Every structure is written in C-alpha cells, then in structure tokens.
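Sample A.
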Amino acid sequence: MELKVVDIKGKETSKKVSLNSSIFGIEPNDHAIYLDVKQYLANQRQGTHKSKERAEIAGSTRKIKKQKGTGTARAGSIKSPVFRGGGRVFGPRPRNYGFKLNKKVKRLARKSALTYKANENNIIVLEDLNFKAPKTKEFVSILDNLKVAGSNVLFVTAENDKNVMLSSRNIPRTKVVTADSLNTYDILNASKVVFAVSSIDKIDNILN
C-alpha cells in the first residue's frame, strides 16, 4: 500500500511512502488484540484497594451478650461483619492485576490493529514535525489543516521530541507517542493515526 506524504498545511507532496504489507496488510487476529488490550488496561490499575476485615477493626473483643436465652442469634464480638461498623467479609486486598503476554502475541496485536486502520483509510503520513519551541497554537493549526480536529488523534514520531510533546499535551483527544512505545490500545482508540515519515522505517524494524 502506498500513501502520499502530506505537509503541515494538509497538502499532498510529491513524496510517497510504501507501507509494509507484513505489518499493515496481514490477516487481523482479533483474539491477540483482545489479549493485548486486556493486559494494557490491567496494567493501568493501581490495585491499592483495601477494606478492613474483622481482625483489623478497632473495637472491644468482649462478648456482647450471653450465649443463650436472648431469643436471637449468638454473638461473640462487636467486630463481627453482621454488626454496623464491623469488619467486611472477604473484602478487597492490594493486588497486581498484570499478567504475562508473549512478545509475539503483542507484536501480532499491533500489526492487526495497524491493518484495521489501513483498511479503513485512517492512516495519514505527515512530514516530520519540527518545532523550535513549544507552540500549542501551531499544533492546533496542524490538526485543523489535516481535518482531524475534534476527533481522537494519535501522532507517532520516530524519536522523543520535547517540543512536540509539550505542544500537544494540553489538546484534548490528542496523543503523541514514539514508534517504540506504540501500543494496540492507543491505535484502536484513535480515529486517525498520523505517522511522521521517519517513524515508518522505525516501526518496520520494531515489528519485523
């Protein structure tokens, strides 16, 4: 698949980029995508939830009423879960939600997600961004020129450019990532994926 490179004004240039069919033209594997997205979302969870069980509640341990003769159920402690203020039964505890996923599966998931975007014509190849200083206004104008303003947009650059990152971070629904940190969730979450020209070769090296 060949795509024309556009400039920051949104106009097509004479340059063309060929997208590798082994990355942007495979048979998508939905289950690999599911596993990769599941792992990504699981890794976002802090897992710091905690509630106190009866052994951790502050309170008296004296027997609150006699064992027999009250006509009600026996009760040995005010910290019992059946009483207000008592401990919780099987409450949440701190845990790590992450799980292992093979590199080959993760690579297949990214290729599948990129293939979907290519098939839907939701990939744009842009000239390399060159910001001399952080300018949010300039980045907004690029979004307007590409006609992607207001939608979820993912920009993929070859290297980490501080000025580009700072220019885009205050714009809602816009995210900038480097080629080596590209993940399946971000690809699928974006309406349009904008690749800097230099990032295409880097993605070929990473995914092949």
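Sample B.
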Amino acid sequence: MKVDGKTRVCALMGDPVEHTLSPLVQNTFSEEEGVNAVYTALRVKKGDVRTAMEGAFALGMQGFNVTVPHKEAVIPYLSGIDPMAESIGAVNTLVKDEEGYRGYNTDALGILRQIKELDTDIKGRMVIMLGAGGAANAVLHAMYSLGIKGAYILNRSVEKAEKKFGNDMRNVILPLEGFSEIPGDQYFCVQCTSVGLAPDSDAAPIEDPGFYKKISRAVDVIYSPFETKFMKLVKEAGGQAENGLKMLVYQAAESFKLFHGVEVKEESIRRAEEKIKDAMGESSS
C-alpha cells in the first residue's frame, strides 16, 4: 500500500474498537479499487466526541465510521446531516466538508441488503428486535422499508426504548424478560445490542431458552465472535442464525463510496469477506 502526502486518512471512532475488522475491510477496498487511502481505528471515550471531531478536522482526516457508543452522540457536532440519517436518528458515517463533518447512515443500507438476501419474507409480519441503541434505529428503519407490520422491541431499559420508538403505534415495547408476552412463534429477529461482543463472548441478551423457541430466523449485528451465544441459542432451539458480517461489509462499501466517490465492485466485497473469515479462522478453504 502506497502512503504519501496525498493519502487520505479515515478511521473508525468508538469504544471499544479493539475487536473491529473495519480497517481490514476498508483497506482491502482501497487496495482493490486503487484508491490512495488508509483506514485505522481510534478509541474515543464518552465525553470526548466533540474534541475528537474538532481535532480530526484540524488534521484534515477525510472521514469516520462511528460505532458504539457514539452513533447518536456525534449528531450535535455535525456540519450537516443526510435526510435518511436524520429520519433514523443515528449516524455511522462522517464525511469531511468545508465546515466539519456531515453525517450519514449506511447501517440501514447494509442490513437492508443482508435481509433481502435471506430466504425469508418479512413483509406484513411482526418481527422481534433486541436493543434500542444506535444500530437499532437503522435496523428498524430498514425493516419498515421492507414492509413489516410492526416490531416487538425488547430492551433492558423500557424507558429508553419508549422514548425512541414509542411514538410509532406499530411498535410494542417490552423489557427483555417480557418476551413471554409475544404470542406464537416463527419470528424473524435482529439482535442489535452489544451483548456477546468479544471479549464477552459467553453472554447473550436473553438466556432463557423459551425465548429462542419463538425465533425461526435471526441476524446478530455482531460479527466478532463469528458465532455469538445468541446465534448458538437460536440454532439449539431449531432456528437459523447468521452474524453481522454481511451488514458490516455492505455498509462499509457504502461508506467507502461516500469517503472517496468510488463504487466498490462486487468482487472487492467478496474479497473483503474472505479476508475477514481468514482473520477469524473461519475460512471454508
């Protein structure tokens, strides 16, 4: 990889960031597409978001991806916000402009593409979503764009979930232990919390096996570990589950386009997926 005075610098902003494979994905895209750019990960603690953004702008950094816990915290400090990101209420991509950083949300596009590729039809159905953080905003937006009837939203803090999603009467807000109030089974579920994220790989947001009997198909937005405890519990109950690897790569391709104005080719996306699997020891070869 060539690095010189013209190299664009981008990064992931979050806490923690030690687990992230975003630099592997973005740097693969740069190599494959011939873009003079490098990408790293920067740990930014709560309360330091504004300082970090101002310093990055002064240094001329081209852009950021934003992860837990900053997807909403960065919004007050943006120079502007894309209409879709504004309607979602969270951003995961910042792109430098003349006055600062403009916010976008490519998470919604990433999970939308991943769900579309699943052998499942959620149109007209009730679904289950775990969590009410920044990722949940994008996931819910994507599922409603696919025509779901409504969502059972389970969260540790009902008050937080009500504040964010309670104004939409299609949403049913429940505490995590309230899953027994959900009638029937065969639900599509998206796990949007950070519970189970490495290194706390032995945790799941809900441990009760009874919950997992309600799920036929699930996506965990976490991709490290490659198989979370949530995914294992879904499978043990007879359902199908996959991680957030595809969401990661698809949203990254959209972010790369925003950073550099270059469309990522399908073969570059597949190459990034294979590199991630190799890095995690999950290669099928």
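B remarks: The chain has ten helices and twelve strands. Residues 3 and 244 are 31 Å apart (CA to CA).
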